[in-house]
Specification:
13 helices, two-stranded antiparallel ribbon
């Protein structure tokens, strides 16, 4: 029996490792396509890209692992069935559950690893990945000066060139506007026959070299503007040069990670203990706010006003027994208007206060739902690995087809169904339409009966997906139809069945 178990394990581990890395590669490529616009043209070093891909690979493991288990189990048992190895084992008196036992134990071990991964490794990977992505988004694009277009990608400067030599990097007919003077933004213009822009190695400075040019500087003499004796408060400077070099300090062109402390409070960056602790804190805060709102709403009353002989009013305690109607009708028209305006203003203030507190409570409840979703997500990955194995293994034994053909099609079909259902449940849970556990476990609740049904059918040697069985079935129907040569015989046959 040990040799049998080793044979089954060897047959399974190869496809499992292969399909896992194939699924991982596809999901990482999907991740890159999603964020490619944020990375292109920023001159990122290969170490930064390698770190980004590493943490992106860790992030997609929860999706790659169930898909790999489903596809590997389908391929393994499909190949065993196609080569009649399952038939030989069953003829020797070994049942299918006994054949699957070593793989069931292995899948349980993988599920335990999946939980540990989701609880301890995935939060750190999410934190690192978000920090790198935020830093990449904040990194500015490298200089890309186009011909005959004003380029404002450099802080406080606008550049226009008529021609650009892409091989040598030289720019011709260069015009540069210097906007560093905030009070006269277009007063400094430099025109040159040619030039070259080059970044320093650390991307902290821009080195500008210009040849055969003129610099026009027109500045406003603000100290003499208010003097009546000064008719011309402006000064003009014109400088000719053969060669000029300027160094401009740049900001945002070099990549730097964002401080991770900015994202540590996110629900996806916490392990199970942190989620439970923070969820309790959020519940306590929410309950405190709800109690405060109830107390405040119950104490909101309209104050009663009493006027004296000079039309000055004072607020009367509402707890005192005073007839409001008689008090209101005893007032003059102006006093009634004052009372109504005061009451309306107070009602609006009370409404605004209640709405602000309701919005705050809604935000707290949204945080609570996200924390509860992450708690359930720690376990749904492990359970999905088990479900997909009990779908793939019996399905492979039924269809008896190995390789990457039909098993891949069936695996993708089941995974797409799982993904759509899971995404729908997560969305409903996040928006509060469903209770959190209902949305997070919806996909598992739908696929679990399918796995049980397929396991039962495979154990009882069902011909559920056997093409030959369906062919024979339809052939029998066709033969019965051919026996009837006329509608009269059909009528007699139906009459014999239903007298």
């Amino acid at each position: 029996m040990k040799k049998l178990h080793l044979f089954i394990l060897k047959s399974y581990l190869g496809p499992l490792i292969l399909t896992f890395f194939i699924a991982l590669f596809i999901l990482v490529m999907q991740f890159l396509w999603k964020y490619v616009d944020d990375m292109v043209g920023k001159g990122l070093e290969w170490l930064v890209l390698a770190e980004l891909l590493f943490y992106a690979s860790l992030q997609v493991v929860p999706m790659a692992m169930p898909l790999a288990i489903l596809l590997a189990s389908l391929m393994t048992f499909g190949s065993l069935g196609e080569n009649y190895e399952l038939t030989a084992l069953k003829s020797a008196g070994i049942s299918l559950p006994r054949i699957m036992m070593p793989l069931i134990i292995l899948t349980i071990v993988i599920s335990g690893f999946a939980y540990q991964f989701s609880n301890n490794i995935l939060p750190v990977a999410n934190l690192k990945l978000v920090s790198i992505l935020h830093g990449i988004r904040e990194t500015r694009l490298e200089l890309d000066i186009k011909e005959k277009v004003f380029y404002d990608g450099i802080d406080d400067f606008t550049v226009k060139v008529e021609q650009k030599d892409r091989e040598t990097g030289f720019l011709y007919d260069v015009m540069i506007y210097d906007h560093r003077d905030r009070q006269a933004r277009n007063s400094n213009v430099t025109v040159a026959d040619s030039g070259k822009f080059q970044m320093s190695y650390d991307k902290q400075y821009l080195i500008i070299k210009l040849y055969d040019g003129i610099r026009y500087d027109e500045k406003l003499d603000l100290g003499n503007v208010n003097k009546q004796n000064k008719k011309d408060p402006q000064t003009f400077h014109t400088d000719f040069f053969k060669e000029q070099t300027a160094i401009v300090q740049l900001q945002g062109y070099d990549f730097s990670k964002t401080d991770e402390s900015m994202f540590r409070s996110g629900d996806r960056m916490k392990n199970l203990n942190q989620l439970i602790h923070d969820l309790d804190s959020l519940k306590t805060e929410r309950d405190t706010q709800v109690e405060g709102l109830e107390l405040r709403a119950s104490s909101f009353v309209f104050s009663k006003i009493r006027f004296d002989e000079r039309d000055n009013y004072e607020i009367i305690d509402s707890a005192k027994s005073i007839n409001s109607d008689s008090l209101y009708h005893s007032l003059s028209t102006l006093q009634k208007k004052t009372v109504l305006e005061y009451s309306l203003r107070q009602a609006r203030d009370n409404k605004a206060t209640i709405e602000d507190q309701i919005r705050y409570i809604g935000r707290e409840e949204s945080k609570m739902r996200r924390h509860e979703m992450e708690i359930h997500r720690k376990f749904t990955l492990s359970f999905a690995c088990l479900i997909f194995f009990f779908i793939g293994a019996p399905l492979g034994a039924i269809i008896r087809k190995g390789g990457l053909g039909l098993p891949t099609v069936i695996s993708v079909l089941f995974f797409v169904i799982y993904y759509i259902v899971d995404t729908t449940g997560v969305k409903f849970a996040k928006e509060g339409v469903w209770i959190v556990y209902q949305g997070m476990w919806l996909s598992s609740a739908i696929l679990l009966p399918i796995g049980i049904f397929l396991t039962y059918k495979a154990t009882t040697d069902s011909t559920l997906l056997n093409a030959e069985a369906y062919t024979i079935f339809f052939q029998k129907i066709q033969e019965k139809i051919k026996k009837f040569n006329s509608p009269r015989k059909i009528f007699q046959y139906v009459k014999s069945i239903y007298p």
